[in-house]
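Give me the fold.
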Amino acid sequence: MKALDRLLGGLIILGGVGHGFGSFRAYGNQPMALLWALSASLAVFLLGAVNLLRTARDGDHPLAWISFAGCVAWIGFALWFGILIGSVFDFRPMANLIITLGLAIFSLRSALRTKL
């Protein structure tokens, strides 16, 4: 299970890389839109990093709760994006939803695990 947890953390970071490249391609000549798009890429990198850190720190309940809260927020943003583009079932929001839902489940499981 830990390998799957780490894989999902890596995948969300790769998604952030893809988002960053796509942002430059789509908004390269629109500095304001590019700034906001790149801030979302940074948010994804940080969410992935927090989740990867959480996998290495089994007893860190506050970190697990922070990770869970970040995942819930990102799920909300992915749903909102899907609604804005007119299709929640588009690959982009669905990939984010599936990966982040998995991370949220692992985060909640870590947060609720009793201390040894």
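Helices lie at 2-27, 31-56, 61-85, 91-112.
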